[in-house]
Design goal:
Layout lengths: L3 H6 L4 H19 L4 H16 L1 H21 L3 H14 L5 H10 L5 H23 L1
Helix pairs in contact: 2-3, 2-4, 2-7, 3-4, 4-5, 4-7, 5-6
Length: about 140
């Protein structure tokens, strides 16, 4: 019998692969800000949700990030992402919100290489989200 972690870490579908990369992104963010309990709790919630209902995680990302922000992400529009993050955090808190709060609370503290890495992660996640939703 496979464990929850094995199912998450060895995806067999585009949705599973998307979830794996989203969890890895949250792990990276959590390692940058280990003092941020919200990020750790979100990571745990995403891992649990991905094991129980993988499509739920994909849908959360699609509804709360991709639909409104994928163009901002593709064009690295910091101000627009920060403004959207503030609105989302104040009106629709969910498992993805701690990542969005990164833009609101921590973006100014990050050096350029870290910001570039975050943009790359988000761009990849948007591509994977799009692919998984078409599958």
């Amino acid at each position: 019998m496979s464990s929850k972690n094995d199912r998450i870490r060895r995806p067999k579908t585009p949705t599973g692969f998307f979830n794996l990369k989203l969890i890895e992104f949250f792990e990276q963010i959590q390692s940058l800000f280990p003092e941020e309990r919200d990020i750790q709790m979100a990571l745990e919630a995403l891992e649990g949700a991905a094991a129980i209902n993988p499509k739920l995680v994909l849908d959360l990302f699609y509804e709360n990030v991709y639909k409104e922000a994928h163009e901002f992400i593709q064009n690295e529009k910091e101000e627009e992402i920060i403004a959207l993050a503030r609105v989302k955090i104040n009106t629709q808190f969910n498992e993805v919100s701690p990542a969005l709060s990164l833009f609101d609370k921590k973006w100014d503290l990050l050096d350029d290489p870290t910001r570039e890495t975050i943009w790359k992660w988000l761009k990849v996640l948007c591509v994977l989200c799009d692919k998984a939703r078409k599958d």
